[in-house]
Write a structure and sequence with these properties.
Layout lengths: L1 H12 L7 H8 L3 H13 L3 E5 L3 E6 L6 H5 L11 E7 L2 H10 L7 E7 L17 E8 L8 H20 L4 E3 L3 E4 L2 E13 L2 E12 L18 H5 L5 H22 L2 H10 L6 E6 L2 E10 L5 E4 L5 E4 L3 E4 L2
Parallel strand pairs: 3-4
Antiparallel strand pairs: 1-2, 4-5, 5-9, 6-7, 7-8, 8-9, 10-11, 10-14, 11-12, 12-13
Bound molecules: ligand BTX.
C-alpha cells in the first residue's frame, strides 16, 4: 500500500530518531489509528519496529525479503521496479509477467517471488528456485524496436547482473554465452529472455533472471551439486537479496538508456570484457548438431562467432556451450 511505503521511507530516512505517531500520520496522510494498523502489518512482513511511549516509532531491523515494500526503500531508479508485483510463492514469475504484459503492465514492471514451484530455463528446462534463498524475478520492458533485437537484451541483462554482483559482493563473475553467469566456474545465475511481439515491433520483452544468492550446498538437488553455486557460498557470508535486486535494476536502467541512445556497441565491449569463453576453444551444441572451434567474439547483434579448424567462421544464434579441454 502507498501508506505503508510512505511510512517505511520516512522511518528509513531517520533510522536513529523516533517519529511520533502524529508525525507519521501527517507524512502518510492518514489517522494515528491507521498508522498503528500499518505498523502491525509491517511487523508481520518482518520489519522490526520499536515503539516507545511519548517518543514514537523507529525502525531497527528489516527482513531479508524481496517484497515490494522492502525493495522500494532506497531504490534509485526512474522506471525499472517502480511497479512491483510480489508473490510469496508462484509457479513461474515469467508466466505472471507474460500475463501482466499482455494486460498493459507499464514498462519497468517487476514480478518477483520468494519461491518458484515451476521455474523454467531455456527449452522448458527446470530452474531450481528454493524458498527464501535466491532472487526469482521477471522484468517487463517495452522498447520501440524490431523483434530481432530481443536477444541483445539477454546480454544487456547479463552485464547488469555482473556489475550488480561486483558492486554488492566484490566477487568477479564471468559470463558464459549466451545466458549463464558463472562464479568460480559454476553457474550462479541464469537469464531467460522472452518476447511478445508484432511482426515488425516488440510489444514487451520479459527478462527472467534467476540468481542464486544465499543457497548452501544442501539447497541444491543432486544433479546440480557439481554445477551450481550461490553468491553467498563463494563470498562466505549471507547477502541481502534486496540490495542485489536494487543494484540489478539500477545497472539495468543505466545500460538500457545507454543502449537506446548509443546502440549495442558499448554494451558489447563490456559484455566481452566479462566473457569467459572468448578466445577459448569451445564446443557449441545446437539443435542442428555440435560445432567445435575457437570463440572469436560476438557480433553487433549478439550472435556468437566460432572459427572451426578449417578456418570457417560460424554464427551461433542459440546453443549450449562448453569449454573444450
Ligand atoms: P538454462 O536453460 O540455460 O539453464 C537451465 C539448466 O540450469 C537446468 O537444466 C539445470 O541444469 C541448471 N539449473 C537449474 N536450476 C539451477 C540453479 N538454481 N542454479 C544453477 N543451475 C541451475 C537458464 O536457463 C535461465 C533461467 C531463468 C530463471 C528465471 S527465475 C525467474 C524467471 N522465472 C522463470 O520461470 N524463469 C526465470
Amino acid at each position: 500500500s502507498v501508506i505503508r511505503e510512505k511510512l517505511l521511507s520516512a522511518l528509513s530516512d531517520s533510522p536513529d530518531d523516533f517519529l511520533s505517531g502524529q508525525a507519521l500520520a501527517d507524512i502518510a496522510g492518514c489517522s494515528r489509528a491507521a498508522v498503528w494498523k500499518h505498523i502491525e502489518e509491517l511487523r508481520k512482513e518482518g520489519f522490526v519496529l520499536e515503539a516507545v511511549r511519548k517518543k514514537g516509532y523507529r525502525i531497527i531491523g528489516s527482513p531479508d525479503s524481496v517484497t515490494a515494500n522492502k525493495l522500494k526503500i532506497g531504490l534509485k531508479t526512474k522506471t525499472l521496479g517502480q511497479y512491483i508485483h510480489y508473490e510469496e510463492t508462484v509457479g513461474s514469475t515469467q508466466k505472471v509477467a507474460h500475463e501482466l504484459a499482455a494486460n498493459g503492465a507499464p514498462e519497468g514492471t517487476l514480478v518477483i517471488a520468494d519461491e518458484q514451484t515451476d521455474g523454467r530455463g531455456r527449452l522448458m528446462r527446470e530452474w531450481h528456485s528454493s524458498k527464501g534463498t535466491g532472487v526469482w524475478m521477471s522484468l517487463i520492458l517495452k522498447p520501440l524496436l524490431p523483434p530481432q533485437k530481443a536477444p541483445q537484451f539477454t546480454l544487456i541483462a547479463a552485464v547488469a547482473v555482473v556489475q550488480a554482483i561486483q558492486e554488492t559482493t566484490g566477487l568477479e563473475p564471468q559470463i558464459k554465452w549466451p545466458n549463464d553467469i558463472l562464479i568460480n566456474g559454476k553457474k550462479a545465475t541464469g537469464i531467460l529472455t522472452e518476447l511478445q511481439a508484432e511482426p515488425d515491433k516488440i510489444s514487451s520483452i520479459i527478462i527472467g533472471i534467476g540468481m542464486n544468492v544465499n543457497q548452501t550446498q544442501e539447497h541444491f538437488p543432486d544433479e546440480l551439486q557439481s554445477i551450481a553455486t550461490s553468491y553467498g557460498m563463494v563470498a562466505g557470508r549471507s547477502l541481502s537479496r534486496s540490495d542485489i535486486v536494487q543494484k540489478v535494476l539500477e545497472r539495468m536502467e543505466a545500460l538500457y538508456e545507454l543502449y537506446m541512445a548509443k546502440g549495442f556497441t558499448p554494451i558489447k565491449l563490456m559484455w566481452e570484457s566479462y566473457a569467459v569463453s572468448i578466445g577459448k576453444r569451445i564446443t557449441a551444441r545446437t539443435i542442428n548438431g555440435s560445432i567445435e572451434g575457437y570463440a572469436r567474439g560476438i557480433t553487433e547483434e549478439g550472435v556468437l562467432q566460432i572459427e572451426d579448424d578449417t578456418g570457417q567462421l560460424h554464427h551461433i544464434y542459440s546453443a549450449d556451450i562448453e569449454l573444450s579441454r
